[in-house]
Specification:
The protein is α/β, with parallel strands linked by helices. It is built from five helices and six strands; from the N terminus they run H-E-E-H-E-H-H-E-H-E-E. Strands 2-5-1-6-3-4 form a six-stranded mixed sheet, with helices on both faces. The longest helix has 11 residues. It starts with 8 loop residues before the first helix and ends with a strand.
């Protein structure tokens, strides 16, 4: 059994399979997930695990080249907007409807227990060299 890092075997295995250019959606419990991407559902109950905790955990495990979030996050969820701006560089904001369309092309979807509006980000994987 792993001693450190991500212990969830489904998530740990899915992360190990990602390559350069693949996308990972970290989303709240309300984000519609289309058929197609691999889904690791971490939601235990409302708010658990929180979006910020999952984001920080994945950013510690992944090399990223930036991310995309819904432009609506700025007005509807300023705390998450600030969190994303401080953790994801560069961060592109697009309409929420477009973000939902891009979800279908994600390689992995990680669902959190977050229950606040627009707590979603699509991360683009990079390489470590």
């Amino acid at each position: 059994m792993k001693k450190t890092g991500i212990l969830n075997r489904h998530l740990s295995g899915a992360l190990a399979e990602l390559g350069h250019g693949d996308t990972v959606l970290i989303c709240d419990a309300g984000m519609p997930i289309p058929p197609g991407p691999r889904v690791v559902d971490l939601a235990f109950r409302a708010g658990v695990p929180p979006f910020a905790e999952v984001l920080d955990g994945l950013l510690a495990e992944l090399v990223t080249e930036g991310g995309t979030a819904a432009a609506e996050v700025r007005e509807s969820n300023p705390a998450t907007a600030a969190l994303l701006a401080s953790r994801v560089t560069p961060l592109t904001l697009i309409p929420h409807e477009e973000l939902k369309l891009r979800t279908a092309k994600a390689r992995l979807v990680v669902r959190t227990g977050e229950a606040t509006p627009y707590a979603n980000v699509l991360l683009r994987c990079g390489v470590f060299f």
